[in-house]
């Protein structure tokens, strides 16, 4: 713990980002949250506490569709909270599903939102319902601790542990990493679950994080080749499983990935991680800890736009970072193993795992589970399924879900419910490979629509695809409402990044497997221009592609876009 305590004691908080004082003086994430939540005069909490709620897994938001109307009426913004679960590996029982579904209607906006990090978000939770909401989650043996904030976030892994022994082992390791890197402060239990406070010293309260926590969010993903559903290179740490004959041998270790950037600020950029070594399964938790602690002690605490691990690595060099990690570990990492990915998408429909049990992959457009006006009743349908399904339900990092380990005698019944509730539309491969972040109306940072808009843009792109003879072809398309990159758009073959209402930057040339960044192709364009740009390119792709060539590779081979070699030349 020495490095950070010493360093931060020597520096005045005035020299650091204001959030640093806030964290350190928050009494281990308590702040004035207790009072703020109890105060009924406002629907929100105090400014400082809005930062602290994140560490407990929820965000103060206001309805942006109503923001200006309420301002005109001299009313405070219509505050509510987005609540995010910590669910490493994204697995729950049917029983847990039913509980989570119940509180979506009771305390939130009646929908469940699968996120790109394999968990659920609730939107529209009012302050007076927060405690009750979190208590029910706790009773279901789940929590929201560290789902947001400057800590290690929800640990993600290739979906569905019931598929094979390796999937199970990797899932269990995701849980171990998550548990090990959890903040130890009891603030959450005291403020929201009514636990009595027991005084404790610094080491007791936060042995890993100290009262300073991390400079910024920190993310870990575990991938099982040939599937790169988690986009292993887009996170602070990526662990890529190496297995032989169904036995897990260890992980290639990747460090320094991240997506976020700011328009017009070339010092910010998405970056893919570097593969720096190998560790065995029993080393993976301590390796994750060592990497996180190097970042804790050397990450930038002045400028939050420069505070992720990717910038620490850019500033100090990847070799230096690896040596620091190895110094802490007391041993060198092994040689990375070879791996091969063939897609970063999900599997759909019925399929069998290694032990022949059945699983059903369900496409959920942009992760929103609701009963829609068009007759598709995902919420009611999943409720019906959860009532009879004795296995588990798994979430994916592509915002989809899997009805996992289905008993043989339940297959027909589940199939009938899928039909009854119109849960599966005839969806093109293009739509199945698409993903959009939340954006309006809840996201405070959105510059353009995303979840509410992408489906209609896909309608139009589907027409162009059909006309070009590409109706059955898969292209990875992702959209975000701002450059923060929540749907990992910079690794998509076609990426749309919001600039202003109705306007997007268009990125091309990511790989089908999530292993290459795309590049800016056109800036600040509207829908008509998007279609004008993409329609001829799709036609050309249909005519001139090589056998099996993916769209992202094609645009590079044809010189439409220059290849990126890593995050570093993203802006060139
Ligand atoms: Fe994100 C901030 C939603 C995954 C990069 N993200 C936000 C906030 C909380 C807006 C805010 O700070 O006020 C968004 C809430 C919107 C809402 O109304 O729900 C938000 N992020 C999401 C989700 C729900 C998108 C989705 O449609 O699924 C994802 C939740 C994941 C989870 O369960 O934990 C989500 N965010 C990501 C990812 C993808 C990933 O982690 O694999 C990224 C890019 C990877 C990375 O971190 O580099 C991502 N979110 C950001 C950033 C930019 C961070 C940066 O380094 O610059 C922000 C803004 C910030 O932190 O300042 C952000
Ligand atoms: Fe909001 Fe931007 Fe993230 Fe989309 S990418 S959810 S608009 S922060």
UniProtKB/TrEMBL annotation:
Cross-referenced InterPro entries: CysI (IPR011786), NiRdtase/SiRdtase_haem-b_fer (IPR005117), Nit/Sulf_reduc_fer-like_dom_sf (IPR036136), NO2/SO3_Rdtase_4Fe4S_dom (IPR006067), NO2/SO3_Rdtase_4Fe4S_prot (IPR045169), NO2/SO3_Rdtase_4Fe4S_sf (IPR045854), NO2/SO3_Rdtase_FeS/sirohaem_BS (IPR006066)
Catalytic activity: hydrogen sulfide + 3 NADP(+) + 3 H2O = sulfite + 3 NADPH + 4 H(+)
Positions contributing to [4Fe-4S] cluster binding: 437, 443, 482, 486
Domain Nitrite/Sulfite reductase ferredoxin-like: 79-139, 353-418
Keyword Cytoplasm: no
Cofactor(s) required, per the database record: [4Fe-4S] cluster; siroheme
Domain Nitrite/sulphite reductase 4Fe-4S: 178-330
Keyword field: 4Fe-4S, Amino-acid biosynthesis, Cysteine biosynthesis, Heme, Iron, Iron-sulfur, Metal-binding, NADP, Oxidoreductase
EC number from the UniProt entry: 1.8.1.2
Main EC class the enzyme belongs to: oxidoreductase
Cofactor note: Binds 1 [4Fe-4S] cluster per subunit.
Pathway participation: Sulfur metabolism; hydrogen sulfide biosynthesis; hydrogen sulfide from sulfite (NADPH route): step 1/1
Binding site for siroheme: 486
Gene3D superfamilies attached to this UniProt entry: Sulfite Reductase Hemoprotein, domain 1 (3.30.413.10)
Assembly notes: Alpha(8)-beta(8). The alpha component is a flavoprotein, the beta component is a hemoprotein.
Family: Belongs to the nitrite and sulfite reductase 4Fe-4S domain family.
NCBIfam families from the UniProt entry: CysI (TIGR02041), PRK13504.1 (NF010029)
Role of this protein: Component of the sulfite reductase complex that catalyzes the 6-electron reduction of sulfite to sulfide. This is one of several activities required for the biosynthesis of L-cysteine from sulfate.
Protein name: Sulfite reductase [NADPH] hemoprotein beta-component
Organism: Litchfieldella qijiaojingensis
Classification of source organism: Bacteria, Pseudomonadati, Pseudomonadota, Gammaproteobacteria, Oceanospirillales
Gene: cysI
């Amino acid at each position: 713990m020495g490095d950070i305590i010493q360093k931060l004691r020597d520096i005045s908080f005035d020299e650091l980002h204001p959030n640093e004082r806030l964290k350190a003086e928050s009494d281990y994430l308590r702040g004035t949250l207790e009072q703020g939540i109890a105060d009924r005069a406002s629907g929100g909490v105090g400014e400082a506490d809005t930062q602290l709620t994140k560490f407990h897994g929820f965000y103060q938001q206001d309805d942006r569709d109503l923001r200006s109307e309420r301002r005109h009426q001299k009313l405070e913004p219509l505050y509510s909270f987005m609540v995010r679960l910590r669910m490493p590996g994204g697995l729950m029982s049917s029983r847990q599903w039913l509980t989570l579904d119940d509180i979506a209607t009771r305390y939130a906006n009646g929908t469940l939102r699968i996120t790109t990090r394999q968990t659920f978000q609730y939107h529209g939770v009012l302050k007076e319902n927060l405690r009750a909401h979190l208590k029910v989650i706790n009773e279901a043996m789940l929590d929201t601790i560290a789902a947001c904030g400057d800590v290690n976030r929800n640990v993600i892994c290739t979906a569905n542990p019931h598929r094979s022994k390796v999937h199970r082992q990797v899932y269990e390791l995701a849980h171990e990493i998550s548990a090990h890197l959890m903040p130890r402060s009891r603030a959450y239990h005291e403020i929201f679950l009514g636990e009595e406070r027991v005084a404790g010293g610094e080491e007791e309260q936060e042995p890993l994080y100290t009262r300073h926590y991390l400079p910024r969010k920190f993310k870990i993903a575990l991938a099982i080749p040939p599937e790169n559903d988690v986009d292993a290179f887009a996170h602070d740490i990526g662990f890529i499983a190496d297995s032989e004959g169904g036995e897990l041998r260890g992980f290639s270790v990747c460090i320094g990935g991240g997506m976020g950037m700011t328009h017009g600020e070339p010092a910010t950029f998405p970056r893919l991680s570097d593969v720096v070594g190998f560790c065995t399964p029993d080393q993976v938790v301590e390796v994750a800890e060592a990497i996180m602690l190097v970042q804790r002690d050397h990450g930038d605490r002045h400028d939050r736009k420069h505070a992720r691990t990717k910038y620490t690595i850019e500033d100090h060099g990847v070799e230096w970072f690896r040596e620091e990690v190895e110094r802490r570990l007391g041993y060198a990492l092994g040689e990375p193993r070879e791996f091969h990915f063939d897609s970063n998408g999900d599997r759909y429909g019925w399929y069998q795992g290694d032990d022949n049990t059945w699983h059903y992959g369900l496409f959920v457009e942009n992760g929103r589970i609701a009963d829609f006006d068009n007759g598709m009743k995902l919420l009611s349908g999943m409720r019906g399924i959860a009532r009879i399904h004795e296995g588990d339900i798994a979430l994916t990092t592509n915002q989809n879900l899997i009805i996992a380990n289905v008993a043989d005698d339940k297959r027909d019944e589940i199939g009938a419910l899928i039909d009854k509730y119109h849960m599966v539309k005839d969806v093109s491969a293009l739509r199945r490979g698409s993903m959009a972040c939340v954006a309006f109306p809840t996201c405070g940072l959105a510059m353009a629509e995303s979840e509410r808009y992408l489906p209609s843009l896909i309608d139009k792109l589907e027409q162009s695809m059909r006309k070009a003879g590409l109706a059955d072809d898969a292209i990875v398309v992702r959209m975000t409402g701002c450059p923060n990159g929540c749907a990992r758009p910079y690794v998509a073959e076609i990426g749309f990044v919001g600039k202003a209402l109705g306007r997007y930057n268009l990125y091309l040339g990511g790989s089908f497997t999530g292993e290459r960044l795309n590049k800016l192709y056109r800036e600040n364009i509207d829908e008509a221009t998007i279609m004008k740009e993409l329609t001829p390119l799709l036609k050309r792709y249909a005519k001139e592609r090589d056998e099996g060539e993916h769209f992202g590779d094609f645009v590079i081979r044809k010189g439409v876009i220059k290849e990126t070699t890593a995050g570093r030349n993203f802006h060139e």
